[in-house]
Amino acid sequence: MSNGQDIPLSRPDITALEIDHVVQTLKSGRLSIGPMQEQFEALVAARADTRYAVAVSSGTCGLHLGLLALGIKPGDEVITTPFSFIASSNAILYVGAKPVFVDINPRTLNLDPNQVEEAITPRTKAVLGVEAFGNPSHMIELANLCQKHEIPLVEDSCEGFGGTHRGRPIGSFGRLGVFAFYPNKQITCGEGGMIVTDDERLADLCRSMRNQGRPVDPTDPAEPAWQAPGSWLMHERLGYNYRLSEIHAALGVAQCKRLDEILELRNGVASKYMSRLMGMPDIILPTVDPETTMSWFVFVVRLSSEFSAENRDRILAGMRRHEVGVSNYFPPIHLQPFYMRQFGYSDGDFPITESVAQRTIALPFHTRLREREIDLVCQTLEVMIQREKFTIDRSS
Ligand SMILES: Cc1ncc(COP(=O)(O)O)c(C=O)c1O
Question: Which of 12, 159, 261, 335 is most buried, judged by most C-beta within 10 A?
Answer without folding.
Answer: 159
